[in-house]
Amino acid sequence: MSEVTERSALGGKVAGIGVRLPTLLTRRDLVVLVVFAIAVLTMPTWLVALGGYEALATKIVIWAIFALGFDILLGLTGYLSFGHAAFFGTAAYVTGLSLKHLSADILPAMALSFVVVLVVALALGVLTLRRSGIYFAILTLAFAEMAHALVLSSTLQKWTGGDNGLTGLASPSLFGSRLSDHSVFYICSALLIAGYVFARVLRRSPLGLMLRSIKENQMRLEYTGVNVFAYKMAAFVVSAMYAGLAGSLMVIYEPYVATKYLYWSTSGEVVIMSVIGGVGTLIGPIFGAGFMLYFENVVQAFIGEQWKLLLGIIFVAIVIFLPGGFADLGRLGWKAMGGVVRSRRHNVPDMPGSVEEDRRRRQRGDLEEDDD
Amino acid sequence: MIETVNGHASAPILEVRGVSKWFAGLKALDCVNLTVQEGSIHAIIGPNGAGKSTLLNVLIGLIEADDGTITYAGETLKGLSPHNIIQKGIARVFQTPQIFPALSLVENVAIAILAKRDGKFSIRLLEALRPGHPVVELAAEHLREVGLADHLQSEAQHLSRGDKRRLELALCLAAEPRLLLLDEPTAGMSRHDTNRTIDLLQHLSRKGMTKIVIEHDMHVVFSLADRISVLAQGAVIAEGVPEDVRGNPKVQQAYLGEASA
Known about the structure:
Chain A is mostly helical. Chain A has helices spanning 2-9, 27-41, 43-49, 54-77, 85-102, 106-128, 133-152, 157-160, 181-204, 206-222, 228-253, 264-277, 283-303, 307-321, 326-336, 355-364, and strands spanning 173-174, 177-178. Chain A has one domain: Orthogonal Bundle (ABC transporter involved in vitamin B12 uptake, BtuC), CATH 1.10.3470.
């Protein structure tokens, strides 16, 4: 390889850097993870004390997985998708079909939905990631709506159940034994905890740094020799896999596939959870998922249909007064105690356009402020 | 053509032949030829709107030339995507500093080191980029070299404009390029910082790095450049060693006369 020898002739330091790496998780990480795991695993108990019910805990954990994966795309990479219902719903339908026609065991159902969501995510990523900001949001929304229309279409009705959703599923089992509500909760919790560990490791890894720099300045990244599109694709696919996992677990939790799993409102809900909780903080969207479902299921029992109005007011108040979401309360508290906090970008669509858009504009000569 | 620069023989690392670019009927580059010797510092000067930055943009694939060829280290760059061109060992400092605003200085530079170490795409998950990681330590070293040692963990967006420029330079140097493109590297810097930057660039040239510099400051141009190309209205009107260019009446008319007036 002449290229390599030529480069090292310049006395390159990169070629000589060591391979001894710091440990993956610090003691502080371990403390955080243990606290997180305990909080999740004891949720059925403390949720009841807060006026909730045990089964709600499972639902919260499932949506937390969805919101956590969504934050990898929105919070780390800076891409606001309005079509993540496409992955959640696709996985739900595939899981449902597998439970109904193939086997009551959840492993083939989950494996199958994993593969299908991977393929769908790769295809949608190629089609949507060439655009950024509002165009990306609209494109993802359009594809999700197409998927929704497809499920309701008369040709597929025989398979999908049309408007009624997919019903008559076998009750899910694992290795031949029927799953109890408790075991579903612990399976979902284990996956959430694993997903959280993965997301934290990802955030601090070289891959995570690349994703965070896409949010900051993807033009600079491309002109540093990085294939920005490939990294965007990685973030998109990983976050779609989280959404797919959540969709699949939803059907295992409640053996029925609702058409709304593919509807835009599902995409919208995960966006609201992220914003309420704190975009880009990983823990924030998990908290947001819990808050929103608690509101929808517990607070509603007290104040009736007006819960949506109240949630709307809370949402607006957070966007205006606490743009970093609930997670910002912790940061503000830390700052008040004299700690050092890093500033954080809360919102997304103000990011500069993608590399392709930038090149296209320059190609036409629309963008020449750099030139004199 | 073998020439001697800085005392050792060198071959052209970059050859631009007949490159033209139109913007909606306006000719931004008019059949530009440019030969840059390995290890040299080649300055591009010219009045505003001469097409200097456009030429650099064409070199890194930011815009595509309508005509002409670009050969870098014996290979054509035509049709390559920007990151593939950069991966061949080119780095670019932009006129408006291009950095990652909300990332720390160390993270800014670490990105370039990772791009060099891992290539254009690689999934590296099982490494924690914390103090003690060799990439982080090397990034800090690069920042010390350009005089930004005091702010390693602060965010890039809080730097002054001159410091942002130095950060971008550190980022580009961390990629260990063979060819460094600099678009007004000292604009907005004090005389003291300008001289420091000149020293740094000269130091790097002794290590064999080739540089193309766009510069308005004639003090910088004449203290740095081995050769100068003068661009006016998209065309090269003069090319040669600094003394020849300084004495060229066409250049004085197009540029130097105007600047000294």
